[in-house]
Each structure stands twice: as structure tokens, then as C-alpha cells.
Automatic annotation (TrEMBL):
Pathway in which the depicted protein is active: Carbohydrate metabolism; D-tagatose 6-phosphate degradation; D-glyceraldehyde 3-phosphate and glycerone phosphate from D-tagatose 6-phosphate: step 1/2
Catalytic activity: D-tagatofuranose 6-phosphate + ATP = D-tagatofuranose 1,6-bisphosphate + ADP + H(+); beta-D-fructose 1-phosphate + ATP = beta-D-fructose 1,6-bisphosphate + ADP + H(+)
Family annotation (InterPro entries): 1-PFruKinase, Carboh/pur_kinase_PfkB_CS, PfkB_dom, Ribokinase-like, Tagatose/fructose_Pkinase
The family this protein is said to belong to: Belongs to the carbohydrate kinase PfkB family. LacC subfamily.
The keyword Transit peptide appears for this protein: no
Residue spans crossing the bilayer: none
Organism: Cytobacillus oceanisediminis
The protein, known as: Tagatose-6-phosphate kinase
Length: 317
């Protein structure tokens, strides 16, 4: 039996709404045309890009209310298998106000409380879905009522079935999951410094920290550093991935698009370097778009030619 390639988990999804304004008038009325609404949350951004890349994707997590119905319709339009658990609460909304000076002001709802019964229903589904998958992508924040132990349980369950886990979260959820040894983690530089509790002022400090983290049995540690590209530590090898030169519209969702590109390369059996090139190109392609978690395949093919990787060192620090 051939496994469906990729399973994504989004525990705290949202409808992302972008308002384009001349400027935001605090305390006054502001008019805008055609707000842009998308199914959001990090895991759903990943899901959308994977769908654009032609991958077979199953998506799960928690959805509720009319906002949840909107997201289910989006998944249906993408051709994604919807395995979300229906909850009593209302899925959140996140609002972004983009003005003509390239300022972005965001209002992020906290989201619904997830009951113990709803969490158990998700575990039940995952016990069925994880063995069917090749790759499990766990992305984003935890909703109210859900502890870090759910992420840890997912990692253990996936590893028991030989499924590679790409974990893209931050803070305590990331820190407390490292010892469970996901296949990949991808903090940005600020999130890495948060894990360490100190700044990394020199590049060597980043590499040493990545090697230490990899000792948890994490095969690939990636630290993204914005326009400067990414640091990659893989089986004792240090690689730096340069980004393509683009005219950025919005960087929001580029990290999610990177993860989607990495998962697609992994699913297709690409080499690690070709996988990283695809991932970086997806991140850059997303930054060229106003929509979050979206890429234009025509742009992607051009960007792939521009990405370079330098292997700077092999061995043990």
C-alpha cells in the first residue's frame, strides 16, 4: 500500500483577513475595498502551498462555527482531505491592516477553548491518520486548554510508525518537545535566542547551539535569518542557504512556505540540498505575494535557479 504523502496539523487555525488602507485612522472610521480572506494558521498555510505544489495532503486539527465552515470550504476547493475535528467553540479570526507605507498592524484573536473530549477525538483520528502518512507537519501555537504534551504525543506516535515529523512552533511548545526528537525543527534566529535565553552575536554561537540541539536526535536543524537566508545543520554538516533577490510584498507566511517546500522535496525523494533549494524558493515566492501562504509556480521555477547553498564545514564542533 502506498502511503498518502503528507499530514498537516493545525490546532489553532484562523480566518486571516487583510485590509489594504491608505493609512489607519485611530479613533476614526477608515474605508477599505475588497478585504482578502484566507484559511490561516501556520499549518493551513503549509497545506495550501503543498496543494499548489501538487502534493497529496490530509489536514487535521480543530474547527468550529461559521469560521470553521469557511475554512472547510477552502480545503474542499484545494482538494485537500479534511480530517478536522468539529468543536463547540468558534474558530478565531486574525486581522491585518496594511497601509501605503508598508506598515502592518495585526489584531490576533486568542481562539476557542478545546475540551478534553475534543482533544481525545483528535488523538483518535491521529492514531488512524499517522500510520497512513509519510510526513507529519505540526505547526503553530497551541489553543486554550491544550498542553505541550499533545505535541509530544504526536511526535512519539509518528516515530513509532516511521513517520518523519517536521515541527514548526516556538516558545515552551518547542523547548519541551526537543527531547522527543522530531526529524526537523525550524526556529528563526529570534526564536533560537529565546530557546537559549541569550543572544547569538557571532555565527559560531548559532552553529554550536544548533549542534547541541541536534543531540536530541533531531536530524535537521534549520535557523532562518530573514533576508540573510538560513543556517542548516544536518548530520554534522553545516550549510548556509542564500535567499533569492526579490521585490518583497509581504514576508508573512514565508516560513510556512519554506516548510511546505521542504516537505514536498522530502516526499519526492530529493537530495537534502535540492530539498533546501525548493524550500527556500517557496519561502521567497510567498514573500512576493500579498496572500499569506501562497506561491506562483511560474515565479517558483525562476527562483529555484537563483538559490545557492554553501557547505561551510563538516565534522563535530
Amino acid at each position: 500500500m502506498i502511503k498518502p504523502s503528507i499530514l498537516t496539523v493545525t490546532l489553532n487555525p484562523a480566518i486571516d483577513t487583510v485590509y489594504r488602507l491608505e493609512y489607519l485612522k485611530i479613533g476614526r472610521s477608515t474605508r477599505t475595498k475588497s478585504p482578502l480572506k484566507t484559511a490561516g494558521g501556520k499549518g493551513l498555510n503549509v497545506t495550501r502551498v503543498l496543494s499548489i505544489l501538487g502534493e497529496s495532503v490530509t489536514a487535521t486539527g480543530f474547527l468550529g462555527g461559521s469560521n470553521g465552515n469557511f475554512i472547510r470550504k477552502e480545503l474542499s476547493n484545494l482538494g485537500v482531505r479534511d480530517e478536522f475535528v468539529q468543536i463547540a467553540g468558534e474558530t478565531r479570526q486574525c486581522l491585518a491592516f496594511n497601509d501605503s507605507r508598508n506598515n502592518q498592524t495585526e489584531i490576533l484573536e486568542e481562539g476557542p477553548f478545546i475540551s478534553g473530549l475534543e482533544q481525545e477525538e483528535l488523538r483518535h483520528r491521529l492514531r488512524i491518520l499517522i500510520p497512513e502518512a509519510q510526513i507529519l507537519i505540526v505547526s503553530g501555537s497551541l489553543p486554550l486548554g491544550v498542553s505541550n504534551s499533545l505535541y509530544q504525543w504526536m511526535i512519539k506516535e509518528a516515530k513509532n510508525h516511521g513517520v518523519k515529523v517536521l515541527l514548526d512552533t516556538s516558545g515552551e511548545a518547542l523547548a519541551e518537545s526537543l527531547s522527543y526528537g522530531p526529524y526537523l525543527i525550524k526556529p528563526n534566529r529570534e526564536e533560537l535566542e529565546g530557546l537559549l535565553g541569550r543572544p547569538c552575536r557571532e555565527e559560531i554561537e548559532i552553529w554550536k547551539s544548533m549542534e547541541k540541539i541536534a543531540e536530541n536526535g533531531i536530524e535537521i536543524v534549520i535557523v532562518s535569518d530573514g533576508e540573510r537566508g538560513s543556517f542548516v545543520y544536518y548530520k554534522g554538516e553545516r550549510m548556509k542557504v542564500a535567499t533569492a533577490e526579490i521585490r518583497a510584498v509581504s514576508p508573512v507566511g514565508s516560513g510556512d512556505s519554506f516548510i511546505a517546500g521542504f516537505a514536498a522535496g522530502l516526499s519526492k525523494g530529493y537530495s537534502v540540498k535540492d530539498t533546501l533549494i525548493l524550500a527556500s524558493a517557496c519561502g521567497s515566492a510567498n514573500a512576493m505575494e500579498e496572500r499569506t501562504g501562497y506561491i506562483n509556480l511560474q515565479n517558483l521555477n525562476t527562483l529555484i535557479e537563483q538559490i545557492s547553498i554553501n557547505s561551510t564545514w563538516s565534522g563535530s564542533l
